[in-house]
Amino acid sequence: MITIEQVKKSDAIRTYIAKEDEALIALGYTEHSFPHVGKVANTARDILLKLGYPARDAELAEIAGYLHDIGNIVNRAEHAQSGAVMAFRILDNMGADPADIATIITAIGNHDESTAVPVDPITAALILADKTDVRASRVRNQDIATFDIHDRVNYSVKRADLDICPEEKEIILRLTVDTDFCSVMDYFEIFLGRMKLCTRAAQKLGTRFRLSVNTQFLL
Length: 219
What we know:
Radius of gyration: 17 Å
CATH architecture: Orthogonal Bundle
Helix content: 40-55%
Number of domains: 1
Strand content: 5-15%
CATH class: Mainly Alpha
Structural class: alpha+beta
Shape: globular
Order of helices and strands: HHHHHHHHEEHEE
Strand order of the largest sheet: 1-2-3-4
CATH topology: Hypothetical protein af1432
Largest sheet: 4 strands, mixed
């Protein structure tokens, strides 16, 4: 049975994560390295645990979160699908159970908003964890004068908390945004598609997705 500890200790996996992030640096993208995949993995696990899903489901979501962006080493376009194929080969070579591999690659292959579908709870948890990782520390460009809208939106987020509320059946993304760098309209221009996807993912988990910006609920 494959474990998250085995995945994190794999030299090959660590190499692929480092190299996919190098490719995204060249393309001018925000950080997609170990801080991002680690946060996504932890959040996906916590979502399922707090909503009462089995511990094994939570671990599979954690593994999917850790591996979800490796396809960027092939190309940013369709990286979810290429990442799923890569994950299949890696996990198969590690001796993972076919059922576990199937669950993990389904989540990876369905996480990117261009083709994403929350087909099961593990995929839904991965989508929510990935799309809610918005924070200033992901911005690499240090020259504020040259920020594009993606840089401004991420840099403006000074705090982001994802609250899982099983009793209320809600998942709430609470953002503290510095509007000197980014207007709320700018945020929605970039993230409206992601927030719609989060709404669908939350529904798959039997919950409602809500968004709060500077204490005001927008969704």
